[in-house]
Specification:
112 residues; mainly beta; four-stranded antiparallel beta sheet; three-stranded antiparallel beta sheet
């Protein structure tokens, strides 16, 4: 039998974000440090085990249970995140950038 995960939800406001536990208290999750700068986006893995969010210069991946930081990727300007169905891969979509001489910016990256 799979372990029971705690229930929580994330919110993203204009200048802040957070993780909140569910019933009965609906209090902020202990141990989660709110970033100093506004996040662009966040995403849970399909099974709810991983949580990631994108800041202007970095993407952080956490274990949702206990909010332990697993990985920090130095990827600027990420506007969309998506986990694969089995949470094996993380796709990031960056803002398009106009490069010199008409070369194409590769703004979709997949990480394992």
């Amino acid at each position: 039998m799979a372990p029971q995960l705690s229930q929580q939800y994330a919110f993203l406001a204009q200048k802040s974000m957070g993780l909140v536990g569910s019933m009965p208290a609906y209090m902020p999750i202990e141990g989660f440090t709110v970033p100093d700068v506004p996040a662009h986006t966040y995403q849970y893995s399909p099974d709810g085990c991983l949580f990631t969010y994108a800041l202007p210069t970095v993407v952080r991946i956490f274990l949702a249970e206990g909010t332990q930081l697993l990985q920090e990727l130095s990827i600027p300007n990420v506007i969309k995140l998506k986990f694969s169905p089995h949470r094996t891969y993380l796709s990031t979509w960056e803002r398009p950038v106009k490069l010199e001489y008409g070369t194409q910016h590769k703004n979709l990256c997949v990480y394992r």
